[in-house]
Design brief:
By secondary structure, this protein is of the alpha+beta class. About 35% of the residues lie in helices and about 30% in strands. The protein has a single domain (about 5-80), classed as GIY-YIG endonuclease. The longest helix is centred in the C-terminal third of the chain and has 12 residues, at about 60-70. The protein is globular.
Length: about 80
Protein backbone atom coordinates (compact mmCIF):
# COMPACT_ATOMS: atom_id res chain seq x y z
CA UNK A 1 0.00 0.00 0.00
CA UNK A 2 1.19 3.50 -0.86
CA UNK A 3 1.77 5.69 2.18
CA UNK A 4 2.96 8.71 0.24
CA UNK A 5 0.46 11.37 -0.73
CA UNK A 6 0.81 14.64 -2.57
CA UNK A 7 -1.06 17.83 -1.92
CA UNK A 8 -1.03 19.74 -5.17
CA UNK A 9 -1.99 23.14 -6.51
CA UNK A 10 -3.13 23.51 -10.09
CA UNK A 11 -3.54 26.77 -11.96
CA UNK A 12 -5.97 27.22 -14.83
CA UNK A 13 -4.44 28.56 -18.02
CA UNK A 14 -7.86 30.06 -18.82
CA UNK A 15 -8.27 32.46 -15.90
CA UNK A 16 -5.37 31.75 -13.48
CA UNK A 17 -7.66 30.32 -10.77
CA UNK A 18 -6.11 27.86 -8.36
CA UNK A 19 -7.32 24.38 -7.42
CA UNK A 20 -6.01 22.44 -4.41
CA UNK A 21 -6.23 18.67 -4.24
CA UNK A 22 -4.64 15.53 -2.84
CA UNK A 23 -3.57 12.30 -4.54
CA UNK A 24 -1.21 9.37 -4.26
CA UNK A 25 -0.46 9.60 -8.02
CA UNK A 26 -0.13 13.23 -8.97
CA UNK A 27 0.57 12.75 -12.69
CA UNK A 28 -2.46 10.49 -13.13
CA UNK A 29 -4.60 13.00 -11.24
CA UNK A 30 -3.39 15.93 -13.37
CA UNK A 31 -4.29 13.94 -16.48
CA UNK A 32 -7.81 13.32 -15.15
CA UNK A 33 -8.24 17.05 -14.47
CA UNK A 34 -7.10 17.93 -17.99
CA UNK A 35 -9.24 15.23 -19.61
CA UNK A 36 -12.38 16.70 -18.07
CA UNK A 37 -13.00 13.79 -15.71
CA UNK A 38 -13.21 16.03 -12.62
CA UNK A 39 -16.50 17.94 -12.52
CA UNK A 40 -15.25 20.90 -10.48
CA UNK A 41 -12.31 21.64 -12.79
CA UNK A 42 -13.77 20.64 -16.15
CA UNK A 43 -14.74 24.15 -17.26
CA UNK A 44 -11.35 25.73 -16.61
CA UNK A 45 -9.02 23.45 -18.58
CA UNK A 46 -6.14 23.23 -19.25
CA UNK A 47 -4.49 23.03 -15.83
CA UNK A 48 -0.80 23.19 -14.95
CA UNK A 49 0.84 21.97 -11.77
CA UNK A 50 2.29 24.97 -9.92
CA UNK A 51 3.07 23.42 -6.52
CA UNK A 52 3.16 20.03 -4.85
CA UNK A 53 4.05 18.85 -1.38
CA UNK A 54 4.86 15.24 -0.52
CA UNK A 55 3.36 14.09 2.77
CA UNK A 56 3.92 10.74 4.47
CA UNK A 57 0.34 9.73 5.19
CA UNK A 58 -3.24 10.34 4.10
CA UNK A 59 -4.41 11.98 7.34
CA UNK A 60 -1.68 14.64 7.34
CA UNK A 61 -2.12 15.20 3.60
CA UNK A 62 -5.85 15.81 4.12
CA UNK A 63 -5.09 18.31 6.91
CA UNK A 64 -2.69 20.18 4.64
CA UNK A 65 -5.21 20.18 1.79
CA UNK A 66 -7.89 21.60 4.09
CA UNK A 67 -5.49 24.29 5.30
CA UNK A 68 -4.61 25.36 1.75
CA UNK A 69 -8.33 25.58 0.93
CA UNK A 70 -8.95 27.81 3.99
CA UNK A 71 -8.74 31.61 3.98
CA UNK A 72 -5.24 31.60 5.49
CA UNK A 73 -4.10 28.93 3.07
CA UNK A 74 -5.43 30.87 0.08
CA UNK A 75 -3.52 33.94 1.26
CA UNK A 76 -0.37 31.85 1.60
CA UNK A 77 -0.76 30.54 -1.96
CA UNK A 78 -1.52 34.02 -3.30
CA UNK A 79 1.82 35.22 -1.89
CA UNK A 80 3.94 32.40 -3.33
CA UNK A 81 2.32 31.70 -6.72
CA UNK A 82 2.55 34.39 -9.40
CA UNK A 83 -0.74 35.16 -11.09
Amino acid sequence: MCDIYHVYVLQSKVDKRLYVGMSADISKRLTSHNNGQVFSTKGYRPWVLVRSETIGNRIDARKREKYLKSGCGKEFLKNIIPR
